[in-house]
Write a structure and sequence with these properties.
There is one protein chain. By secondary structure, the chain is α/β, with parallel strands linked by helices. Strand 11 and strand 12 form a beta hairpin. Helices cover about 40% and strands about 25% of the residues. It has two domains: about 150 residues, Sulfate adenylyltransferase (Roll); about 160 residues, Rossmann fold (3-Layer(aba) Sandwich). The protein has 14 helices and 17 strands. Strands 7, 8, 9, 10, 11 and 12 form a six-stranded mixed sheet that branches. It has a five-stranded parallel sheet with strand order 14-15-13-16-17, with helices on both faces.
Length: about 400
């Protein structure tokens, strides 16, 4: 049986931009060997069509110039004119899932082999949401810098698709200007800035610089790319990571109204700290309740909510966490925990002017006058909460969806 095969590099550039024909798979392997290419067993099968991956380097790669190699055509360019390749790739390489657009980038993190596989794993489990690149190296090799809106397939160190991501932000800055928050979002090592700098300095200076014929300096210009996970490819099937929303805002901003509506629309659980406190503890509250009394009981509620949230995520369902999130440390902890549990967390900041919020609180207080179990908020408490709330940091705002309301 004659065969047609896509010969793919580790980052899925297509040899000669189309199918390669051969009398058999054995003949294809011999044909590739004559070209200096060692290929794997088929990684995508739909007889008589197959896809095989090149093992090791391809010509030009060791010189850092492979992105301009005429024999290796970027997958997105092939997709532009070849519906047959697009359909085969989506069905057989991505388990039937079609990316939102054909202009996909395909790449692996770091160097090949173990490093690329480890970093792809961090992406798939949600720990890694940011990456960095050395701008001079990209310019030297002809590799384009990422742009907002890019859709990318992330492979492991051997060319197997692991995940699909989309670029949400690209910032250009000096190596010295990287922040603690950026280091945390990169999700590598011990998550500290010092560790981030040690690891990236070593990689760019000792691995990438010799490859491209440059020297890496401390004042080097880099870019950082923040991305969102779209799909994780498990076996032959693409799976979604459930999304957990974390609404954030000051008293009277409408967090709970938003949370209830979204939970109802999505058919997911709504975990409200106010509701838990009201049902479990408010009838026994001291008069007036102290902050220490409330925080200790909030902690108990959050422990139970966390256990229930884990059940929802493991069942493949998302949730809305309506827990106030007044403090930066609290937001950071819950974002990290959601990622550890296998979900994609997203802050939603609801920004409403102060007096508009107070008028809402007054109206709500009047509606609760005849409900002994309700939690009313007087002006003194409202004003105190204004100072207790820690505004979102610049890094948090870049990650959050922002809803503004004047009414």
């Amino acid at each position: 049986m004659s065969v047609q095969a896509l010969i793919l590099s580790v980052d899925h550039r297509v040899f000669r931009g189309s199918w390669v024909e051969a009398p058999s798979l054995e003949a294809l392997e011999a044909q590739c060997a004559e070209l200096g290419l060692k290929v794997s067993s088929p990684v995508a099968i739909d007889p008589p069509r197959f896809a095989v991956l090149v093992e090791g380097s391809i010509p030009g790669e060791s010189e850092g110039d492979s992105f301009r190699h005429p024999d290796w055509v970027p997958l997105a360019r092939v997709f532009e004119s070849r519906d047959d390749v697009w359909n085969f790739y989506c069905e057989r390489m991505l388990g039937g899932w079609h990316p939102p657009k054909r202009s996909v980038d395909v790449f692996y993190f770091g160097s090949k082999g173990l490093m690329a596989s480890q970093l792809a794993h961090l992406v798939a489990k949600g720990s890694k949401r940011l990456t960095a690149g050395w701008r001079a190296s990209h310019a030297k090799t002809g590799m384009p810098e990422p742009e907002v809106g890019w859709v990318s397939i992330v492979t492991d160190g051997f060319g197997i698709p692991i995940a699909c991501i989309t670029t949400e932000e690209v910032r250009r800055l000096s190596f010295a200007s990287v922040t603690e928050e950026m280091a945390r979002l990169e999700g590598e090592g011990d998550l500290t800035l010092d560790d981030w700098k040690r690891g990236h300095r070593r990689y760019w200076r000792e691995i990438e610089a010799p490859m491209v014929g440059l020297e890496f300096e401390e004042d080097a210009e880099i870019f950082v790319e923040r991305f969102r996970l779209l799909k994780v490819f498990a076996g032959q099937h693409a799976v979604d990571r459930p999304e957990v929303l974390l609404p954030v805002g000051l008293t009277g901003s409408g967090k709970t109204t938003f949370a209830k509506r979204v939970a109802r629309e999505r058919g997911v659980a709504h975990f409200s700290i106010d509701e838990w406190m009201r049902r479990l503890y408010w009838s026994d509250a001291p008069s007036p309740p102290s902050l220490e009394w409330a925080l200790e009981r909030c902690s108990r509620c959050e422990s139970m909510i966390e256990a229930l949230l884990e059940q929802e995520i493991r069942a493949g369902r998302g949730a809305v966490l309506d827990l106030g999130f007044s403090k930066i440390d609290e937001r950071t902890r819950w974002l990290k925990r959601c990622e550890e549990l296998g979900a994609t967390p997203r802050l939603v900041y609801i920004d409403v002017p102060r007096e508009v919020r107070w008028s809402r609180v007054e109206a709500r207080n009047r509606a609760l006058e005849h409900n002994s179990q309700a939690i009313a908020v007087d002006r003194a408490t409202f004003d105190w909460m204004e100072g207790y709330f820690e505004p979102l940091t610049d890094d948090e705002l870049r990650l959050a969806s922002v809803i503004e309301s004047e009414r």
